[in-house]
Amino acid sequence: MPVNLxxxxxxxxGSVFTYAGVKGLSIxxxxxxxxxxxxxxxxxxxxxxxAPVSTPPATGSTAVAGGTATGQxxxxxxxxxxxxxxxxxxxxxxxxxxxxxxxxxxxxGHDLGQPLPGxxxxxxxxxxxxxxxxxxxxxxxxxxxxxxxxxxxxxxVWPDHIGIAINNKNMINARxxxxxxxxxxxxxxxxxxxxxxxxxxxxx
Length: 204
Fold this sequence. Notes:
Helix content: 25-40%
CATH architecture of the largest domain: Alpha-Beta Complex
CATH superfamily of the largest domain: endopeptidase domain like (from Nostoc punctiforme)
CATH class of the largest domain: Alpha Beta
Order of helices and strands: HHHHHEEEEEHE
CATH topology of the largest domain: endopeptidase fold (from Nostoc punctiforme)
Strand order of the largest sheet: 1-6-2-3-4-5
Largest sheet: 6 strands, antiparallel
Number of domains: 2
Distance between the termini: 69 Å
Structural class: alpha+beta
């Protein structure tokens, strides 16, 4: 029986996408590793499973639509989704169908009724209709603070990732297909990306 090269190509391409998704890698990184002879099964996870961290107490004010959310309220709301999924480019139309930035938009816009970069929840081009603001747009959102001043509810924004601080050391973030939405070390993530994030305060 003749070999169907198109079919084999489709299978190979599907395998690369599968391994990239499971490992939380970009497609180019997955392809490069395979070309270099590295077994996909041995590729490292993009984000490791972090050790348990202490979470802030469920105190402080809760926000109403259009109101002012405290940093503690933002952090507590984000923590409700620890263990949810991840979907690259997801519009955040439901919990877990989000990536890092649409997760932040869900917490701020959907749950707490806060403005988002360039608009608000429900506007055309915004969740739940579309993905909405990207990490690049979040880099200039709110007001700038220093690393030492980071507290619950602040946004930690790299060019390609974003999380919500739950304290000065840790954050809740939508990480990858493999690890979903969970807790990560702020400084550990900075070491992974090899670039310093910006720190933005959006809460009262």
